[in-house]
Amino acid sequence: MRVVAGGLFVFLGMLVSFALLRSVLPAAPPWLMGGGVSLVMLGLAAVSLWLFNPKGTDPFGRRSLEEQLRELRRLDLLEASSFRAKRAFGVEEYEDEGLHCYIELESGSVLFLSGQYLYDYEPITDDPELNQPRRFPCSEFTVHRHRQERFVADITCGGSVLEPEGIAPPLGARVWRAGGVPEDGQVITTATFEELKERDSKRAVEQGVESNQRLVTLELRSLTPVFDKLSG
């Protein structure tokens, strides 16, 4: 939502700025108008980053993660939730929604985490400068979440690393439209870990079958003119 609001702010600001420039400098050459609009766009983008990012964060990347976390704690904008886990399984990203992770807790309930932030804890093996082992999920961890904006600022990992029992294919648009994906941070008590794993794996398989059927239908339709020509 913040991204949409920021984009609209920049877009509308550019329209207003262009209209003002045209009224103040009606005879200005195109290069001057283009340069003026470009400068305005850069200024609006910077203001948008400042306006539409949560308080205590650093959209310009001038502070380290540790410094940002200290600032959020100073402002009392972080809340911490600690968990003890037994096992986990993941679901691949759909479009840009980020990874999903179902984590079975010691209580028997299941914690659902979802977002781009989970990539920070994934193993990296193809970049010598950034290589790291898997850090999450793990048997003991604390999720630090922004108190107002509800995004995850950091996960403190402890205990032993839990290698996911499996990675299900991404859940498609139909599941998202039907509201079949839990909220990030939701603790699920209405289904067991095994039931959720079986359900999401089944959904992904059904979705793959439907996609293949649509592809076959499209291919057959594209071949229909050829068949009609041959039969004629």
Task: Describe this protein's structure.
By secondary structure, the chain is α+β, with helices and mostly antiparallel strands. It has two domains: 2-51, no CATH class; 71-208, no CATH class. Helix content is 43%, strand content 22%. It has five helices and seven strands; from the N terminus they run αααββββββαβα. The chain has helices spanning 2-24, 30-51, 65-74, 173-177, 193-231; strands at 78-91, 99-105, 110-115, 138-146, 152-161, 167-168, 187-188. Strands 1, 2, 3, 4, 5, 6 and 7 form a seven-stranded mixed beta sheet that branches. The longest helix has 39 residues, at 193-231. It is elongated, with a radius of gyration of 24 Å. Mean pLDDT is 79; it is low at 209-218.
Put simply, the count of helices is 5
Helix and strand sequence: HHHEEEEEEHEH
Strand content: 15-25%
The counted number of beta strands is: 7
SS-based class? alpha+beta
Q: Flag low-confidence runs.
A: 209-218
Task: Give the domain tally.
Answer: 2
Q: What integer value in Å does the Rg equal?
A: 24 Å
Fill in the keyword field for this structure.
single chain; alpha+beta; 5 helices; 7 strands; 22% strand
Put the structure in a nutshell:
Helix content is 43%, strand content 22%. The chain has 5 helices and 7 strands, in the order αααββββββαβα.
Question: SSE layout and pairings?
Answer:
Blueprint: H1 2-24, H2 30-51, H3 65-74, E1 78-91, E2 99-105, E3 110-115, E4 138-146, E5 152-161, E6 167-168, H4 173-177, E7 187-188, H5 193-231
Parallel strand pairs: 1-6
Antiparallel strand pairs: 1-2, 1-4, 2-3, 3-7, 4-5
Helix pairs in contact: 1-2
